[in-house]
């Protein structure tokens, strides 16, 4: 049998299996992350399922360390509570990437089986183990039953010949494999790697290569463990392991020989990891940001290489370099070796351990038109933000961060011939030649009664939406953090009028708390009083706001959805639903002047 067949047979209680067989596989280690973990718990709770051997069951929080996103924070807390109740170990946010900790702590080991909600759980191929990323129902089943069904894959054997060029890193190696096989040639195959260059790869290098099996469509890239790797695992875990090797007479779907002599430093072009090109072909392409880390290149050897290239240098003007170790143990090692100091002196942002640039929540995202060079394993559109992401080795990323454009240490001295992309234009828009028509000073609309005091700007427009800069996109989020009015934006109609209590708009200076109402077409706000900054923001944005006293409105006998008419200049209010009239404080002169200009900056 092949390696994968032997591991699956052993864990299914079978003497032998073959490709296509369906087997129930016992799982040695079952993991849920903060991404998907709450869904796993929901399945267990809703179906009243037990936990099979809690000591083999773990949470690993690595996608969003610290819970900077409210949903992640809620999910993490939910999982922690469940873990405390069920006696499940949580490798919490300080510890780093779950798959790396599983290797370094011996939760996964040569010949073992490992499942996670992480699609890169097949990184376990680096140590000759079987790892798979699966959906939350599969993981819930594994937690409850200790096993899951699996279809035995076909195996492919790759034999590598020739001498690997010195400038070709492990990341370049796997990008060259992507150039050869693309995203689907090895689809659903278990791939075993052999050859002198394979045997020479360290554990860190094997992890880098194995981490991109998913991008190649493979079930797993399996490295037969050599003595050096077994010794390193023993040093890390204090345990000895018996590896699994393929039989000499094992049957493969096919065997392919690949000469590595022609391998070269490569990039993955934005959008698709398998769309590769030589680094030199994009030498000189302007970058805005750079990232070193992820489960592909966050090991100590990656950080040492980056530090060697950054030592005594500065990150280029206008470039942001983010560096994130894979685990907290690696972080501390980098600190003790002085690498963190080198990174900080170079001007890099160094974050706590985690997935970082792949899970955009930890260290931020890239924006529209931003060009990023990253050591991650994916650059799908929207994965790290709205910009463009090139994938490359730590050497390429560090060298590029210093000069401000894509390069590699082997070609960094070459003249730059590639034109940099055109920068966005910030030219002022041509002034309107015709004067805008006078704005109406009397409006009529349906009344929203919101009888609450101290409605703050977080209730009006929560800070999770503050990255929205276009006014027309703000409307859907108005009042969605005010209890009882979460559906306000969906139910509001253009022309509606809001009447509320004291101190409306207390809190922050965010302009969005005004602009969201303008986006919805709200024609007027009436309040007993406003937050000082909010009042200025509303007036300056030409959102009509008026102030009233409770006695002034008594005669109107206002009810929800009454139709009222408001005159900004006189302060007259008519309740057209019951034919009553009263007066409130009208616009003052400057307010009307700004309103008629369409805002403080109008002409």
Structural class: alpha/beta
Low-pLDDT windows of residues: 429-434
Gross geometry: elongated
Proportion of residues in β-strands: 15-25%
- How many domains make up the coordinates? 3
Question: How do the strands and helices of this protein lay out in sequence?
Answer:
Elements: H1 3-12, E1 22-26, E2 29-33, H2 37-46, E3 57-60, H3 70-86, E4 89-91, H4 98-104, E5 113-116, E6 130-133, H5 136-145, E7 147-151, E8 154-161, H6 170-181, E9 189-195, H7 196-200, H8 203-210, E10 220-222, H9 227-237, E11 254-259, E12 266-268, E13 276-278, E14 289-292, H10 294-297, H11 300-310, E15 320-323, H12 328-336, H13 339-346, E16 349-350, E17 371-374, E18 388-391, H14 394-403, E19 442-450, H15 457-460, H16 488-491, E20 497-500, H17 512-520, E21 524-527, H18 532-540, E22 545-547, H19 550-553, E23 563-567, E24 572-575, E25 580-583, H20 589-597
Parallel strand pairs: 2-3, 2-5, 3-4, 5-6, 8-9, 8-11, 9-10, 14-15, 14-17, 15-16, 17-18, 19-20, 20-21, 21-22
Antiparallel strand pairs: 1-7, 12-13, 19-23, 23-24, 24-25
What is shown here, in short?
The chain is α/β, with parallel strands linked by helices and 603 residues long. The protein is 28% helix and 18% strand.
């Amino acid at each position: 049998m092949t390696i994968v067949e032997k591991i699956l047979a052993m864990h299914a209680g079978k003497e032998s299996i073959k490709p296509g067989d369906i087997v129930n596989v016992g799982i040695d280690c079952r993991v849920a992350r903060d991404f998907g973990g709450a869904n796993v718990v929901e399945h267990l709770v809703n179906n009243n399922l037990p936990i099979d051997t809690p000591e083999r069951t773990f949470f690993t929080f690595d996608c969003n360390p610290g819970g900077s996103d409210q949903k992640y924070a809620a999910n993490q807390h939910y999982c922690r509570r469940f873990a405390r109740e069920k006696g499940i170990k949580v490798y919490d946010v300080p510890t780093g990437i779950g798959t790396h900790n599983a290797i370094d702590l011996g939760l996964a080991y040569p010949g073992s089986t490992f499942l996670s909600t992480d699609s890169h759980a097949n990184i376990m191929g680096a140590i000759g183990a079987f790892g798979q990323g699966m959906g939350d129902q599969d993981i819930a089943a594994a937690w409850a039953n200790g096993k899951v069904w699996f279809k035995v894959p076909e195996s492919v054997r790759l034999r590598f010949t020739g001498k690997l060029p010195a400038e070709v890193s492990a990341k370049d190696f796997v990008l060259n494999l992507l150039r050869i096989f693309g995203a689907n040639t090895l689809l659903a195959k278990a791939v075993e790697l052999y050859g002198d260059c394979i045997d020479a790869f360290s554990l860190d290098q094997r992890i880098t290569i194995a981490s991109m099996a998913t991008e190649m469509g493979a079930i797993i890239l399996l490295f037969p463990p050599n003595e050096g790797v077994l010794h390193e695992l023993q040093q890390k875990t204090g345990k000895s392991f018996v590896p699994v090797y393929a039989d000499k007479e094992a049957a493969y779907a096919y065997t392919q020989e690949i000469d590595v002599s022609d391998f070269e430093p490569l990039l993955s072009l934005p959008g698709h990891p398998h769309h590769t090109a030589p680094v030199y072909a994009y030498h000189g392409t302007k970058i805005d940001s750079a990232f070193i880390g992820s489960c592909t290149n966050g090991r100590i050897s990656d950080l040492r290489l980056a530090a060697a290239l950054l030592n005594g240098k500065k990150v280029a003007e206008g470039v942001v370099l983010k560096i994130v170790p894979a685990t907290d143990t690696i972080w501390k090692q980098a600190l003790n070796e002085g690498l963190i100091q080198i990174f900080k002196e170079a001007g890099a942002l160094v974050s706590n351990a985690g997935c970082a640039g792949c899970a955009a929540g930890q260290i931020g995202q890239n924006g529209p038109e931003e060009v990023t060079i990253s050591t991650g394993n994916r650059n799908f559109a929207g994965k790290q933000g709205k910009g463009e992401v090139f994938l490359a080795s730590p050497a390429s990323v560090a060298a590029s961060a210093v000069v401000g454009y894509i390069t590699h240490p082997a070609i960094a001295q070459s003249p730059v011939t590639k034109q940099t992309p055109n920068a966005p234009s910030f030219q002022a828009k041509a002034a309107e030649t015709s004067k805008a028509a006078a704005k109406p000073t009397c409006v009529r609309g349906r009344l929203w009664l919101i009888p609450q005091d101290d409605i703050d700007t977080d209730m009006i427009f929560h800070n999770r939406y503050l990255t929205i800069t276009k006014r027309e996109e703000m409307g859907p989020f108005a009042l969605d953090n005010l209890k009882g009015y979460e559906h306000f934006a969906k139910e509001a109609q253009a022309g509606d009028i809001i009447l509320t209590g004291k101190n409306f708009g207390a809190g922050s200076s965010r302009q969005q708390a005004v602009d969201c109402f303008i986006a919805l077409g709200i024609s007027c706000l009436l309040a007993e009083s406003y937050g000082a900054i909010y009042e200025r923001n509303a007036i300056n944005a030409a959102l009509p706001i008026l102030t009233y006293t409770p006695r002034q409105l008594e005669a109107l006998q206002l009810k929800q959805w009454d139709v009222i008419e408001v005159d900004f200049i006189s302060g007259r209010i008519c309740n057209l639903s019951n034919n009553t009239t009263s007066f409130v404080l009208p616009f003052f002169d400057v307010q009307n002047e700004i309103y008629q200009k369409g805002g403080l900056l109008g002409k």
